[in-house]
Amino acid sequence: MYLFLKILSSAVIIGVVTELARRFPLYGGIVAALPLISILSIIWLTIQGEATHTINKFTLGVLAGFPATAIMLFVIYISLKHSLHLALALSLGIAVWGVFLIGQKFIIGVFIS
Question: Where are the transmembrane segments (predicted)?
Answer without folding.
Answer: 26-46, 58-80, 86-112
